[in-house]
Design a protein that fits this description.
Blueprint: H1 3-6, E1 9-12, H2 26-29, H3 35-40, H4 49-58, E2 63-71, H5 75-84, E3 91-95, H6 103-115, E4 120-125, H7 128-136, E5 141-143, H8 151-158
Parallel strand pairs: 1-2, 1-4, 2-3, 4-5
Helix pairs in contact: 6-7
Length: 163
């Protein structure tokens, strides 16, 4: 076991936790929702200072893991965005392209899998349902409340399993 395997893990969501998605919400407010355009605009997301500061502080004691509802097809853009923000490298868990389950189910499944072999120090996420389910499962949670809630994004996360 290496030293990094012994460090606790801090888990961070991306959208509206580290990356401000406000500029691309318009793609979810139309009918039908334009998912391709929504995700194509992600590389232009401005960083959220509060979230970025938490990642950098967390990296001092923890291994950083990123847990997002973004589909796997967005991996290249997501990794480039994380690097462009100067964020620590870490495993990035994304949903399968065909996985439409609610974010609270997919994320909790991954958290529980990680917790089998590692101490999860904290989950930082903006989705209230994800946070509530993670707390009920015994995880320490910080609610990322530094962006305005989006009804369209909440619907996407919970009912459509898209992000």
């Amino acid at each position: 076991m290496t030293d990094s395997d012994k460090r606790p893990v801090a888990v961070f969501d991306l959208d509206n936790t580290l990356a401000d998605t406000a500029h691309r919400q318009r793609f979810l407010e139309r009918k039908p929702r334009d998912w391709d355009a929504f995700f194509a605009a992600a590389p232009e997301d401005p960083p959220i200072p509060e979230g970025i500061a938490m990642v950098l502080a967390g990296a001092e004691e923890c291994e950083i893991v990123y847990l997002t509802g973004r589909p796997e097809r967005c991996r290249r853009d997501t990794l480039a965005w994380l690097a462009a923000q100067g964020l620590p490298e870490g495993r990035v868990h994304m949903r399968r392209n065909d996985d439409r389950r609610p974010a609270r189910l997919t994320k909790l499944e991954i958290l529980k899998r990680l917790a089998r072999t590692r101490e999860i120090r904290v989950l930082v996420d903006d989705d209230e349902l994800v946070c509530a389910d993670a707390e009920r499962a015994g995880f320490s949670v910080v609610r990322a409340r530094w962006t305005a809630p989006s009804a369209a994004l909440k619907t996407a996360q919970e009912r459509e399993g898209r992000t």
